[in-house]
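Annotated sample (chain length 247).
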Amino acid sequence: MFPIRDHNPSGRMPYVTYALIAANVAVFIMYWPLMSDPRALTEFYIGWAMIPAKVSYAGAYHTLITSTFLHGGIMHLAGNMLFLWVFGDNLEDEMGHLPYLAFYLACGAGSGLAQLVSEPYSLVPTVGASGAIAGVMGGYLLLFPKAKVDVLIIFIIFFRILPIPAWIMLGLWFVFQVFGGLSIPTTGGGVAYWAHAGGFVIGVLLTVPLLLRRGGAQFWARNDGRPAHPQARYAIGRTRIPKVRRK
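Output written by the structure step:
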């Protein structure tokens, strides 16, 4: 289940969101040659990835930020940037450019701390912007729970694009992270589920003051949880696959 766009156009150019995407891509290109050399890549991750044991014993707290600009592969990078592109512009529009940047970095660092708490002695490097982006998703859910999100659903050979409310898509995503974290031993499992869940919760909490300034529950009531402006309409709402009738 992949979000491909929302129906919530932003009112100003999301310069910070675009800059974050560009920065993540640029950093990945910078160390892409190391992907063919496992030893060199490991040394690079030791210096810049978030390794819980290194933070616990050596105080390498800078890696809580640097690790959010590292990715384990092209698909890892592409997936994270897709989520950031879909949800980041609206939060930047509501918060303002610099506050949104501070929010993003705080969610990234907070998500790293959540992963650190879940496995403080792990030697497995943690990389990826997903914790910070999870915070963006949490803030989006709080402000626009009923905004429509077009989701590409893939099930074996069946695929379809469906517009669904943000609270369903983001709520399910969060539940999957919690269950994933509970189902994997704390010795590590390849996906930093607690970083995702922690970033999401931190994003919600950091967005509460903004919601209160907008009027709290009245902000939701005025627009029934939808964006305060007209939602975008797209010509294609779902995939057009011809049906073959049986004779």
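Annotation: Strands lie at 2-6, 148-155, 158-165.
Annotation: The radius of gyration is 19 Å.
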